[in-house]
Amino acid sequence: MPPESYAFPLLDLRVAPANAQPINTTGEFVLYWMQSTHRFEENWALRHAVAEADRLGKPLIIHQGLDPTYAHANDRIHHFILANARELAARAAKLGVHYQFVLRRRRDDDRRVVDRLAARAALVVTDAFPTAGIAERTARFAARATVHVTTVESHAIVPAALMVNEEWAARTIRPKLFAHLEHALQPVRDRAPRHAVTRTLAGSLDIDALDLRTADLVAEIARCEIDHAVPVVAMPSGRAAALARLDAFCTDALPRYEERRSDPTDAEGSSRLSPYLHFGQISAAEVARAAIASVGREAATKFLDELVSWRELALNFTLRNPRFAQLKGLPPWVHETMAKHKDDPREAHYTLEELEQALTDYPLWNAAQNELRQTGAIHNVMRMYWGKSVLLWTRRYGDALKHLIHMNDRWALDGRDPSSYGGIQWCFGKFDRPWGERPVWGSIRSMSLERAYKKFDARGYERRWNGR
Ligand SMILES: Cc1cc2nc3c(=O)[nH]c(=O)nc-3n(C[C@H](O)[C@H](O)[C@H](O)COP(=O)(O)OP(=O)(O)OC[C@H]3O[C@@H](n4cnc5c(N)ncnc54)[C@H](O)[C@@H]3O)c2cc1C
């Protein structure tokens, strides 16, 4: 039986079988294949794997791999993952867990590491994550595995399985989430597995693990067969950096978050935690608890609404709507209005290349694109203008959507996340209602770059990111 602290009633909702294979009771270990939740704390898949390993009387192997084959594999994403892995490796011994990391540098390199480990395992536990190609990779693996594979969702504070249908809007999911929030935020004690991985077992695994203590990450990345045109950014990776950022945000901006988050020239006005949350380097529950402890539940309301309602609405969308990355994922009223306005003359036409290189005739938009290229993020307010503007600048709405997803997934550190698709599709009317009719927009909510100049110091923002 799992210890009492694991008897968290909502855990069961996070766990789902990925195949119908049995647990292999003669297997040598339980394997946790870490795919999207790159942390040891508040990691529900790891908690489940520890409980199962103890129940079966087996040691636990935590395995993480990084391949050159994921969409948009590049230096920026690789570095953020590897730097965090180095921190995990340093902490693993102290926490009493066995953690190993395999870097597949070239496409031709050994590509069946997880299969080989699974063949010796009693059970494989992995992360449930609907985007970044992880759900598809897991499904392919589970179909060929000869051992039981279980997925566990750790992305949401309130288990996503509680919302069985696709939600229409923040207003429909909010009450459901907040009804469970207090319960879901209860801290759960983490602990190490009971049975240690012996040296003999570790040495017999037939893997080429990267020695993260000594590896030269820059040199390793240079050797990888990935897109080297997207450079590493200054943002530090890892739990320590995430906690430092969380602490600074709670002390400084959180008390005036509602006001400060609206100013794109205020770089510290929002948490800037989205890359850490995307890679699961910190849990959203830990962030929520810190915010509440810092300013109280009432004063944290707006922040919690973004962190819980909007973030988990996006997760619900990507889990319940298989067309989350296509126009087909949008509601019927959007299709009607797009059909009516598809031939409206556009104010400009830009190719993907012109957009990606920030070569439009709109300095404010170029500034947002430059912020994305240089830092891996765009301020939330400018991200809305950034997305909405592209809708006006392509011959077809579908091209605008494709271009935005491409640029966001390639350049944003928090890209390829459920919130990426939720945010981009919001620009096209998702989670929204019809507004007044306008050319090209139809009844989709419009946002004009011209109006931004009246709302904040747009020239200052341009100077900062366009370098003039
Ligand atoms: C066109 C467009 C693209 C976007 N792409 C992404 C993306 O790739 N990855 C991403 O995480 N978010 C994306 N968002 C949502 C939002 O802009 C970012 O989450 C937010 O700007 C991140 O900054 P922060 O961490 O300072 O947020 P904070 O304001 O501090 O909010 C805390 C956390 O809540 C979540 N959150 C905040 N706003 C939203 C939102 N509107 N929808 C969903 N979750 C939210 C994020 O995890 C964020 O880190 C996009 C929005 C738009 C309009």
CATH topology of the largest domain: Rossmann fold
Bound molecules: flavin-adenine dinucleotide
Give the full name of the CATH homologous superfamily of the largest domain: HUPs
User: Order of strands side by side in the largest beta sheet?
Assistant: 1-6-5-2-3-4
Class computed from helices, strands and strand pairing: alpha/beta
Topology readout:
Elements lengths: L10 H4 E3 L11 E6 L9 H13 L3 E7 L8 H21 L2 E6 L9 H8 E7 L6 H11 L4 E4 L17 H15 L14 H5 L13 H7 L15 H13 L5 H4 L13 H5 L5 H12 L5 H20 L11 H10 L10 H5 L6 H13 L4 H12 L5 H15 L6 H10 L21 H7 L2 H9 L2
Parallel strand pairs: 2-3, 2-5, 3-4, 5-6
Antiparallel strand pairs: 1-6
Helix pairs in contact: 3-8, 6-13, 9-12, 13-19, 16-21, 18-19
The structure holds flavin-adenine dinucleotide.
Could you walk me through the main structural features you see in this protein, from its secondary elements to its overall organization?
This protein is of the alpha/beta class and 468 residues long. It has two domains: 4-156 and 191-223, HUPs (Rossmann fold, 3-Layer(aba) Sandwich); 322-466, DNA Cyclobutane Dipyrimidine Photolyase, subunit A, domain 3 (Orthogonal Bundle), CATH 1.10.579. 47% of the residues lie in helices and 7% in strands. It contains 21 helices and six strands. The protein has helices spanning 11-14, 44-56, 75-95, 113-120, 134-144, 170-184, 199-203, 217-223, 239-251, 257-260, 274-278, 284-295, 301-320, 332-341, 352-356, 363-375, 380-391, 397-411, 418-427, 449-455, 458-466; strands at residues 15-17, 29-34, 60-66, 98-103, 121-127, 149-152. A six-stranded mixed β-sheet has the order 1-6-5-2-3-4, sandwiched between helices. The longest helix is centred in the first third of the chain and has 21 residues, at 75-95. The chain is globular and about 65 Å long. Bound molecules: flavin-adenine dinucleotide (FAD).
